[in-house]
Amino acid sequence: MKHELDAIFKPKSVAVIGASSNKGKIGRETLHNILLAEFNGKVFPVNPKKQVIHSIKAYSTILDVPDAVDLAIVIVPREQVRDVARQCGEKGVKGLVVISAGFSEVGAAGKKRERELLDVVQEYGMRMIGPNCFGVVNTNPEVRLNATFGKTYPRRGRVGFITQSGAMMEAIMSTAMELGLGFSLVASIGNKADISSNDVLAYLKDDPHTDVILMYLENFGNPRNFTSIAREVSRLKPIVAVKSGRTKLGAKAASSHTGALAGLDVGVDALFQQTGIMRVDTVEELFDVAAALSNQPVPKGNRVCVVTNAGGAGVLATDALISNGMEMPPLSPATVKNLKGSMSEDASFSNPLDMVGGAGSQEFRAALDAVKADRRYDAIIPIFVPPVTVNQLEVAQSIHRALADTDKTVLACFMGAGESTAGIEYLKEHNIPVYIFPEAVAKTLATIHGYEEWLSRPTGKVKRFRVDQARVQEIIDRNIGEGEGAIVGEDAIAILEAYGIPAASYFYARNVSEAVAAAKNMEYPVVMKINTPPILHKTESGAVMVDLRSDKEVRDAFRKLRSRVGILKKGEQFSVAMQKMVTGGIETVMGMTVDPSFGPLIMFGLGGIYVEVMKDVDFRINPLTDSEARRMIKSLRSYPLLTGFRGAPPVNLEILEETLLRLSQLLSDFDSFSEIDINPFMASPDKDNCKAVDARFIVNRKRTG
After folding, report:
1. What is the pTM of this model?
2. Which of 358, 366, 606, 608 could make a disulfide contact with 342, Cβ separation 3.0–4.6 Å?
3. CATH fourth-level superfamily of 6-292
């Protein structure tokens, strides 16, 4: 076999250990499905109490099977699984699909049982899907394997499907059958004790029978491996995923179902954005996007033309498309000229092109013939609302005949036509996906366009700068040694400077006279902050006084801050930190938090009200490439404020990008930080005025570097 997973997905022989002749038993239904699919290989039922099952000779143990066995489907009580796996190893079986449940998903005892099973699998060099899984399917005529206990054998197609939920596998295969969507390979991976979604994803990358990959995920086994694999696969084949556990309650439910913690959703979004995976919110949307990708080309851009016989449907489509970031350019003069001879005088020669209610197959044919030649569009959406007087099938035939030779993306919408009418079935048979409502078409098209945008972006590269690692390590070691949990003030600024991140310098004052002298030295206006005792959240604690413009204001500010501190600890002496007030810029915020699954997540956003109220920020998984740093900045809703709004000069975006990349390098060089805030970082048109004003680093209690 060319690939170690071929033993599972392309076996030449299969043993069903726990095969049964009793209807309703998993062992019976799995064996029955293998035979019903006409598996193109040898099948060996294994049951110590039966001599014949399904008219096939049965064997007491896998060791009694006279022929070599590639794949064993294990359906025995959980207490017997480990011993059965050992027998499979002794037999020379290469792959296991363990359907039996009762492992890590049920608690500590199950986790121990699963570890012992995995030890046996690894001892004999086998590969295993499961335990607690639904099975696997391969519709390739050379294989024809349905090693599941479900009721549905999917149509053959070119869509691969990976799921962590067995119930979802059954539901999706059943619905796909109704929708006419076919699969190449389906894998329910269960508890992922050995083979994970990463392994199957990498396998599907090289599968010549798979063009599109769908995933239902509840958690990530090794997110960092997943990131590198998914980024590579997405360049070759589109990946669409539903990731459950968006909310805390949803994450709790996913955890109890799979035996693993769900990752933070912000990390999932960042991962999918960086790897080109199309994330959808529902299983229904998963089918919508899959139908488009498996039947139509990816649109070359976001320009759409809507052709309809119903004005209301056209308005709904327009609202949905524009809301999802698509564009609807007007028809070109040449297209309008071509249309006027074949349309009603009441038609609206705009976009959407409304041919009015009486339009039938001839009008659709003429309109679509004209629109497909218009270079202003990347996608065409025919929307048909069937009146009693118009034949649906004839309209569907006209749509297909007009657009069969176009390289534009075509997604149709038949509103109120019913889900399985002759017209809809005709379009599906001719590779034109049909949707019931225009909102679904718009969301699908926008999702796929997002993937096309990702494909067209430069891959970027991780940059390295000359920095002073030793200085940062000394600061970390000293703070950990002193038992400090946070690095603030002068040390925080020193860390930034060591990594080439521009920062406003501090001057310290222990009394009013020193404060006034420092202010005069740096020139007004200035900012004063409490330095001793250390305060982590200075703004929230009233420990900052800004825009001080005179000696008197400095004296008053010093006294106010001293009064707010109250009684000091023994040995402490009150002091303030003075900074030159940075003006003429826009406040931004940069930072990092550690996701338990994905590691460091870098954040960027606009400061002030934009981060506090609007939460206009973006996250990326570290390390950042130069193109990802640029995308972070441009992704903000408030990005126009940085580029020059209402005549204001644009800020220096290159400094922002470089600062994010330097922060990324800091995180790659040190895993000592659990949280970082650089807030604010002033973005200014003047390069010399772009600098961090304040920063704090929360450190772990371990020494690393």
Report:
1. 0.85
2. 366
3. Succinyl-CoA synthetase domains (3.40.50.261)
